[in-house]
Each structure stands twice: as C-alpha cells, then as structure tokens.
Amino acid sequence: MSVQEEILKEIKAYQTIIIHRHKNPDPDAIGSQVGLAELLKNSFPEKKIYAVGGPINDLDYLATMDEVSDETYKGALVIATDTADTPRISDERYSLGDRLIKIDHHPNDDAYGDLLFVNTNASSCSEIIADFWRLFPEDLFMNAKAARLLYGGIIGDTGRFLYDATSPHTLEIAANLMRFEFDAAELSRQIEQVSRDVARLSGYVYENLEIDENGAAQLIISKELLEEYGLTVAQTSGIVSLPGKIEDTKAWVLFVQNPEGTYRVHLRSKGPIINEIAKAHHGGGHPLASGANAKDKAECHQIFAELKKVCQ
Prior knowledge:
Blueprint: H1 3-13, E1 16-20, H2 27-43, E2 48-51, E3 77-81, E4 99-104, E5 115-118, H3 125-135, H4 144-157, H5 168-178, H6 184-192, H7 196-208, E6 210-211, E7 216-221, H8 223-229, E8 251-257, E9 263-269, H9 275-279, E10 284-285, E11 289-294, H10 297-311
Helix pairs in contact: 2-3, 2-4, 3-4, 4-5, 4-6
C-alpha cells in the first residue's frame, strides 16, 4: 500500500479531521491547508473537517480559520500541511489528536507524525494535495472552492510559474485546476498586489540594498523603519523577492527586526545553496528559499558573511 493510500485510509476512518499549517502563512500554507479541507468536505460531507491556526495576516481573501475547542481534538485525525518541523506548526494543539499526518514539500529534517508524505520535488504543498486528488478520482471530488485555493498555493510558491521548482507537471496540475469555475486572473492580482505602504518600503529596498562583487546582497530593516512606514513584520513578506529582480544579485538575505529586537531572516538564491546557512541559524527550508532567525545584529553580520562565501 502506498503512503497516499494509507493517508486516504486514515481520512476515511476518522469522523473528525483537523488540518494545521505553519505560522506566518504564505499562499501555499493556506492553499494546501484549506484546499485540502474543502476537498475533503466536498468528498465526505458527513465528516467534521476544520482548518485551524493563528492569524493569517493579509491572506483573508483566500480563507478564514475555524475556531475549535480542545475537546474537538479527542479522537480526531490531525493533518499538518506545508510545515517542515513541529515548532513551526501553527496552534500547538496539533498534539492533542489521535493521529498526526505530515504532508509537505520541504526537506524532511524533522520526520514528525505517525504517517508522513514528503515530496521535495513538488513545487508546493498545494501541488501535492492536487496530485492526491487526481490519484483517487473515485473517492475525492474537486470543486471550484478547493481548486481556487490549491491554484493560489501553486502560483504563490512558484512566483506565478517563474521559479525553478516549476515543472511541466506543475503546469499540468495548474491547468487541471483552472478547469473549475474561479477567476484565476483575479486571484493572481490579489496575490501580487501590495499596499501603498509596502510599495513605499519596496523603494527603500531598491535604494539601500547592499550588493558585493560576487552578487551576495543584504538589507537590514529595523523596527524603527517599520514604524516609520506603518508596517508590521508580517506585512514585509511582499518585499522578500524584490532583490532577485536585480541582475547583479546571485543570492540575498533580508533581516527584518522583530519588536523585541531579534531578526526574522529571509534567504533567497538564484543558484547557490542557502538552506544549510538557515539550518545553522535556527531555521531551514528549500535549497534556494529558506528562513532563519538571528538574535542580534552581530548574528546578522555572521549570516551575511556565510552568504558571501557560498556566492564566491
């Protein structure tokens, strides 16, 4: 029996299913989580299926989270999507369920769960969920609501099919999802658009980005600067990819200071492998897109020094 068959068997066996995703979600986190929830609701209308987690920031155009009590977890199947390790699972009550399933596309450094399916070749976790649907046409039934969410997750994690993870299979899956009735163009605009304050900060990024002779780039965004622009740390996600549009950049790191003084670290690359740097600084992720944490500016300088080495 394949792992996908085992997952479907578990889904069929439980009356209550609670689906989690990672903290500080992006479109793929919401798309895979709520896309799976909507797919299962459409396929098993007699079951109680919930999508839970903390704040979703500016992604409320995609979905909203369900509110559930601790009691709901008793005897429930819990599924975590798009989450590489347990500290990143949004809502720590995931451990209260009867069984835990991990579905993800990040490197499997934390092999948590009673059952797990990880495909690092997939462009996104949403692509994995869509593959799961296509694998069992007699059991799983797609609708426009689920298709919209999964499509949104795919275009979010592929940069609208611009990133290296995009494969012919990714495009095939996206085409299958587009056959359902939702406005794909409007969804692309919603994912791409930013607020005026973020647009102003984008100008600051281009104006102040430091790039060395080998294409390693960095920028530190202080909490004072965020206050000046009227933005929260979560609202800076829209600027992370901007340095990649500059032809001189090979890999880059953005340090965004949290209110308490630590830094959220965003690492991206056009070629050099950067996820080992992230792992060394309380993070991880894909070879070309990772996140980490820095306790102070000294650690930020250390991370940039390591980035410069891999770009040489």
